[in-house]
Amino acid sequence: MTFGVPLLLYLIGGSFGLREFAQIRYDVHKLHGKVDPALKEKLKPNTVTLESEYEKLEKSNLDNWENIRGPSLWEDSRTVQKQRREALRLKTESQD
Q1: What's the rounded Cα separation, in Å, for the pair 36 and 17?
Q2: pLDDT per residue over 36-65, tens digit each?
Q3: Three-state secondary structure call for residue 44
Q4: Is residue 90 part of a domain?
Q5: Cα–Cα distance between 23 and 16 in angstroms, integer?
Q6: Domain assignment of residue 35, given as a range
Q7: Within a domain: residue 24?
Q8: Which of 8, 31, 11 is nearest to 19 (CA)?
Q9: What is the tally of structural domains in the chain?
Q10: What is the pLDDT of residues 20-41, one digit of tens each?
Q11: Is residue 29 part of a domain?
Q12: CA-to-CA distance for 46 and 91, rounded, in angstroms?
C-alpha cells in the first residue's frame, strides 16, 4: 500500500504531463512551421542525376591516381602533412 499509491500517482501524473508537453511541442511547430519563400527556394533539392555524376566520372582520369595514406592515430597530422608537401615539392622539382 505504501508503494502502490505513490506509483499510481506518479504514472497518472506523468501521462498528463507528457500529454501537455507534447501538445506544446506541436503548437510551437504549427507557429514556426511557416518557411520564408526565399529560404524555400534555396533549400530546393539539387537536380543532380545519376547520369550527370556518371559523366563526371567518365571525364576524370582514373588511370593515374595515387594512393594517399592518412596519418595513424599516434602520428601528428600536421607533421605528416608537412612531410608529404615537402616530398611532393621535391618530386616536382626533380621532374623539371
Answers
A1: 33
A2: 777 777 777 777 889 999 999 888 888 887
A3: coil
A4: no
A5: 11
A6: 1-48
A7: yes
A8: 11
A9: 1
A10: 888 888 887 777 767 677 777 7
A11: yes
A12: 40
Residue 43 CA to residue 30 CA, distance in Å, equals: 20
Query: What is the C-alpha to C-alpha distance for residues 8 and 1, in angstroms, rounded to an integer?
Result: 11
Does the residue 37 lie in any domain?
Answer: yes
Residue 94 is placed in which grid cell? 626533380
Alpha-carbon distance of 59 to 47, in angstroms, equals 19
Taking the C-alpha atoms of residue 62 and residue 51, their distance in angstroms, rounded to an integer, is 18
Q: Tell me, what amino acid is at 73?
A: L
Residue 87: closest CA among 60, 65, 73, 66: 66
CA distances from 77 to 27, 33, 40, 43, 54 (A): 48, 44, 40, 35, 33
Q: Which of 45, 48, 40, 92 is nearest to 66 (CA)?
A: 92
pTM: 0.31
